[in-house]
Specification:
This protein is about 30% helix and about 20% strand. By secondary structure, the chain is of the alpha/beta class. The chain has two domains: about 130 residues, 3-Layer(bba) Sandwich (FAD/NAD(P)-binding domain), CATH 3.50.50; about 200 residues, Polyamine Oxidase, Chain A, domain 2, CATH 3.90.660. The chain has a seven-stranded mixed beta sheet. It has a five-stranded mixed beta sheet with strand order 5-13-14-15-12. It has a three-stranded antiparallel beta sheet with strand order 3-6-4, with no helix packed on it. Helix 1 packs parallel to helix 6. The chain is globular. The chain starts with a strand and ends in an 11-residue tail after the last helix. About 35% of the residues are buried.
Length: about 375
């Protein structure tokens, strides 16, 4: 059976839902590969975000029209990862102190790296052989957290623009906030603005495998054997899944090359829940543990086998009154943990915490 629509949207993440909400016609469908909407937004019944969790800047953010400001939890008055001086991050280290002078040194190094075009930030660090202040490597780790990528994949041009000075890297100015009821509240607000019932127009578990452009319209084929036809097609899936779709006629070389060069950030989040009576950490919304058994220099400038010396923790006791610490593991750190048994991951995270809280109890979940 062939289903015909005027418009088909592939993907029901924020982009696909925004397009669907703006359509005045009811003659459209959304094809969603998962069994839920929201894309990278995934909020649990406890209002914890397993996926996207932050509003990155409140000034001029196009999401503002969907937000209830009373539902936001301001954490930092600017980008807390690229400019941690704006956020009360608790730094735990046995070997050095992070203070205002550290920020000055980091900005100076960033400017030096930015002047070395055509290479990655990691390659620039190796060329410089940086060894002036060990604290600087913790800032490099925070940059990886922000990008979700290794500094060996991030070009030096990332630090070249004036945006670095005002903490704007694809985000907006103003407060960076969490959501009291989770990021799904944005999805719900967006869907509620639609001219038509979006939920009735979503086909779930539809993995698109082929798109055929013909003289009479567009044919869309899914993995389960379904076939759709439309006059207009809008594809909102990320670059990697997009490369898995067969196009007839094929995409031209320029588009294929562009897709191959797009890099997507990735990091893993590990949430440890403790008994409320056992909360052992402070009130700061974030803390950074620095493993005393290794160094940032070994990790970033060594042979690649060193364990990551840092873990950034989101303190949900501070922001959501939940006895949960969330470890953020960007890029290679997260990939190394992927597939490991839960108890091994927990032991690895607790080792970092117990370096500074030796009596910390085991988490309950």
């Amino acid at each position: 059976m062939i289903q015909k629509q005027s418009i088909i949207i592939i993907g029901s993440g924020i982009s696909g839902l925004t397009i669907a909400a703006g359509l005045e016609t009811s003659d459209f469908l959304l094809l969603e590969a998962r069994d839920r909407i929201g894309g990278r937004v995934l909020t649990t019944s406890s209002n914890l975000d397993m996926g996207a969790a932050w509003l990155h800047g409140s000034t001029g953010n196009p999401l503002n029209k969907y937000l209830d400001q009373k539902n936001l939890i301001p954490v930092s008055n600017s980008n807390p990862w690229m400019h941690p001086e704006n956020t009360p991050i608790k730094y735990l280290s046995d070997t050095y102190v992070i203070d205002a002078s550290s920020n000055t040194k980091w900005r100076a190094l960033a400017a030096r790296i930015a002047s070395m075009p055509g290479i990655s930030i990691g390659e620039a660090l190796r060329a410089i052989g940086y060894d002036e202040d060990p604290v600087i490597f913790s800032f490099i780790y925070l940059m990886e957290v922000w990008c979700g990528g290794s500094v060996y994949n991030i070009p030096t041009s990332f630090l070249e623009s004036d945006e670095f000075q005002v903490a704007l890297f694809g985000d907006y100015g103003g407060n960076h906030s969490l959501f009291k009821t989770g990021a799904l509240s944005v999805v719900d607000a967006l869907v509620s603005t639609a001219h038509h019932n979006i939920h009735e127009r979503i086909h779930y578990n539809k993995v698109v495998v082929e798109v055929v452009y013909g003289a009479t319209g567009v044919e869309v084929y899914t993995q389960d054997g379904s076939k759709y036809m439309c006059e207009k097609l809008c594809i909102t899936v990320p670059p990697k899944p997009l490369q898995n779709i067969r196009f007839v006629p094929p995409l031209d070389d320029a588009k294929i090359k562009a897709l191959s060069e797009i890099k997507m950030g990735s990091y893993k989040k590990i949430q440890l829940e403790f008994d409320r009576a056992d909360v052992f950490w402070g009130e700061e919304p974030m803390m950074l543990t620095c493993n005393p058994k290794t160094t940032g220099k070994d990790y970033y400038l060594g042979d690649g086998d060193a364990a990551c010396p840092y873990v950034l923790w989101n303190n949900y006791m501070s922001s959501k009154n939940k006895p949960i610490l969330e470890a953020v593991c960007p890029a290679n750190v997260g990939w190394k943990l992927s597939g490991s048994p839960d108890d091994e991951i927990m032991d690895s995270m607790m080792m970092n915490l117990r370096a500074f809280y030796p009596d910390a109890p085991d988490p309950i979940a």
